[in-house]
TrEMBL record:
<feature type="domain" description="Ferrous iron transporter FeoA-like">
    <location>
        <begin position="8"/>
        <end position="80"/>
    </location>
</feature>
<dbReference type="InterPro" id="IPR008988">
    <property type="entry name" value="Transcriptional_repressor_C"/>
</dbReference>
<protein>
    <submittedName>
        <fullName>Fe2+ transport system protein A</fullName>
    </submittedName>
</protein>
<dbReference type="InterPro" id="IPR038157">
    <property type="entry name" value="FeoA_core_dom"/>
</dbReference>
<dbReference type="GO" id="GO:0046914">
    <property type="term" value="F:transition metal ion binding"/>
</dbReference>
<dbReference type="Pfam" id="PF04023">
    <property type="entry name" value="FeoA"/>
</dbReference>
<dbReference type="InterPro" id="IPR007167">
    <property type="entry name" value="Fe-transptr_FeoA-like"/>
</dbReference>
<keyword id="KW-0408">Iron</keyword>
């Protein structure tokens, strides 16, 4: 899966689905997630709360693309 298809899959994910392309040891990504109100852990958890879920996932997808996080640096994101 390419980086672009990975970020596209992030914001198209359905409730309960997991995506496997985040690297938990990235200081830049951890900082960005903290700025967004998400706390880095072994598994990042995104709470799907309308109306914030769509914009939050789009912002995270954009940040992943900017940080060049690719599928080779994989951990899991759970959409709950």
């Amino acid at each position: 899966m390419s980086k672009n298809s990975s970020t596209r899959r992030l914001w198209e994910a359905k409730k309960g689905e997991h995506l496997t392309f985040l690297h938990t040891d990235s200081p830049l990504l951890s900082l960005k997630l903290m700025e967004m109100g998400l706390f880095p852990a072994a598994k990042f958890r995104l709470l799907k709360r309308a109306p914030l879920a769509g914009p939050l996932l789009l912002e995270l997808a954009d940040n992943l693309q900017q940080l060049a996080i690719g599928p080779a640096e994989a951990k899991k994101i759970w959409i709950q």
